[in-house]
Amino acid sequence: MLEALQFEFMQNALMVGLLASIICGIMGTLVVVNRIVFLSGGIAHAAYGGIGLALFFGWPYLFGTIGFALLMAFFMAAITLKAKHRSDTIIGVLWAVGMALGIIFIDLTPGYNVDLMSYLFGSILTVPDSDIWLMLAVGAIIICVVSYFYNDYLALSYDEEFAQIRGIHVKSLYFLLIALLAVSVVMIIRVVGLILVMALLTIPPYIVEKYSKSLIKMMIFSSVLSAIFTVTGLWLSFTFNLTSGASIILVAAFGFLISIAIERIIPKISKRTVKMVEE
């Protein structure tokens, strides 16, 4: 990995990967704890419509995609609050419509041959310096907002009724969470791609959740674990000439399988030990 860092594109990739890991650790924790993984997937896939719109109208990629993702995210959030029993179906429809719009607008873009692989599986090795600064700014905003509203999000995540009794504006806080999530998803798409974004958002927090006794520890350890997955995936992609986004997610999936194995093996070992002691 040290040899790879002599190249500027690998230095940029590592920086972006670490920033994405921090974002994933914080936002992924809130996604997993609040059980909005499917909503996050809907936002990620609907954001593809923003990519198509940005290309068709010549808008800056990130701002066009973030704007469309925010619009769809707020719509989905409103649906989950007003029609919870039908929210999964409607989100699924918006998920499909967003992707379809993106593909149609890309097809209609004159004289543009888009590399769909870069959007579907990420293009971390080609992220420009401007995106690094923008991701740094997004990460700083997320840290500041979540830190400021930490106690409110803690109450919202574990007991919504208690949060309302405390006088917390639950709906406003929820929409703010969804807005941060939409922006985060668009940024992370540049790292691992549209198809794989949910894995990086959910796998590290899921693994850490079993061992963390507080929300803040879960965020920190999820960020660290996500960084380990990202660095390892980048090393594998450079060494074996593999797609970086897919490599990162396969490493994360391997970590997920290990956590499941440990979770099942340790109780069995404990039971056997207890039986041996009793005998």
Summarize the model shown.
The chain has helices at residues 8-33, 37-57, 61-82, 87-108, 116-120, 129-148, 150-158, 160-165, 170-192, 197-209, 215-240, 244-278.
Description:
By secondary structure, this protein is mainly alpha-helical. It has one domain (4-278): Orthogonal Bundle (ABC transporter involved in vitamin B12 uptake, BtuC). 82% of the residues lie in helices and 0% in strands. It has twelve helices and no strands. The protein has helices at 8-33, 37-57, 61-82, 87-108, 116-120, 129-148, 150-158, 160-165, 170-192, 197-209, 215-240, 244-278. Helix 1 runs antiparallel to helix 9 (170-192), helix 1 (8-33) runs antiparallel to helix 11 (215-240) and helix 10 packs parallel to helix 12 (244-278). The longest helix has 35 residues, at 244-278. The N and C termini lie far apart (51 Å). The model has no long low-confidence stretch (mean pLDDT 86).
SSE layout and pairing:
Blueprint: H1 8-33, H2 37-57, H3 61-82, H4 87-108, H5 116-120, H6 129-148, H7 150-158, H8 160-165, H9 170-192, H10 197-209, H11 215-240, H12 244-278
Helix pairs in contact: 1-6, 1-9, 1-10, 1-11, 2-3, 2-4, 2-9, 3-4, 3-9, 6-9, 10-11, 10-12, 11-12
